């Protein structure tokens, strides 16, 4: 039995998180950290038992294999090993969020999926049926968006639950705004 | 001094509300009632002192004058009287939301503006700087949207704060989905 605040099932908030494009694993991107901090300070506040946070991290197969470009794959075991390393990197990212929730006493769950983030997030929303989805956003202008696509815009249009997009603070924006 | 839950300023949630296109004033539209009920049950929950709700009702000048088509305006006083009636209708709508909050002990404020709802909502967000904006939506398909435009889509793109769109329940959808 999960704890609640006496107002029925906790509000299930799915938070999509990814690693920093500048610092790599296990560091969360600026925008996913912003989304998480916003969720804590503006929604959960003091009501730790009223919410349950669901952290979804989607690994992009090609991108996450990039570090291994110089590696030699001589046997099926080598690929298996690479997959294990990917998984461990993702787990370290999720640890950041789960530890934080644990310290505060907030119920949470975290898991990893592989694929195209925007598609996977929407299919996981369909499967898990959270009350809302929180996605971070780099707050890119229209010109920058053309080249990078934005997961948040796709989710706002296609996810089967209310979606809220949290932009990074202007003062946390790196030199190249496409970085995160 | 406002009450809080001990976690800083209450989270300011602006909720855009309008009257029912079927029943008229003082009845709230299905979608604004859904947005309000969602805000209470999923965000505020038991944390009444942690949130402050800001109800904004935007009256559309032409549309709200429609009932007075058969009236005769013979003097400036007649126009003044019409404006007073509009205002009273809007106030009765806001009363629904404010009374509900008052019963629960949730801080709130409510006010009326005139103009194009999507523009006015975004300019009020700029002025009031809420932590988030909740807008109801009829959940219209692309074909229906062409003719009616949607306030929620505009706000998601242009409002200067995080925006969450709450769709009506399918079972509350009237025969003509453009009605609300």
TrEMBL record, chains A, B:
Database matches in InterPro entries: At3g01520-like_plant, Rossmann-like_a/b/a_fold, Universal_stress_UspA, UspA
Protein name from the UniProt record: UspA domain-containing protein
Gene Ontology molecular function: any one: AMP binding
Source species: Rhynchospora tenuis
Chain ranges passing through the membrane: none
All residue ranges annotated as the UspA domain in the record: 29-167
Signal sequence coordinates: none
Taxonomic lineage from the root: Eukaryota, Viridiplantae, Streptophyta, Embryophyta, Tracheophyta
One Pfam family recorded for the sequence: Usp
CDD domains tied to this protein: USP_At3g01520-like
């Amino acid at each position: 039995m999960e704890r609640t605040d006496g107002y029925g099932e906790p509000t299930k908030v799915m938070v999509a998180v990814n690693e920093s494009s500048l610092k790599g694993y296990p560091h969360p991107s600026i925008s996913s950290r912003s989304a998480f901090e916003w969720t804590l300070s503006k929604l959960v506040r003091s009501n730790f038992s009223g919410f349950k946070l669901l952290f979804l991290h989607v690994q992009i197969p090609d991108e996450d294999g990039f570090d291994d470009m110089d590696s030699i794959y001589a046997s099926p075991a080598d690929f298996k090993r690479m997959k294990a390393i990917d998984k461990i990197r993702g787990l370290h990212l999720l640890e950041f969020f789960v530890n934080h929730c644990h310290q505060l006493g907030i119920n949470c769950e975290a898991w990893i999926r592989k694929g195209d983030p925007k598609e996977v997030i929407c299919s996981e929303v369909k499967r898990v049926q959270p009350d809302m989805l929180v996605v971070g956003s780099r707050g890119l202008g229209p010109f920058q968006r053309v080249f990078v696509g934005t997961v948040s815009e796709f989710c706002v249009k296609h996810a089967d639950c209310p979606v809220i997009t949290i932009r990074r603070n202007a003062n946390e924006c790196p030199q190249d705004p496409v970085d995160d």
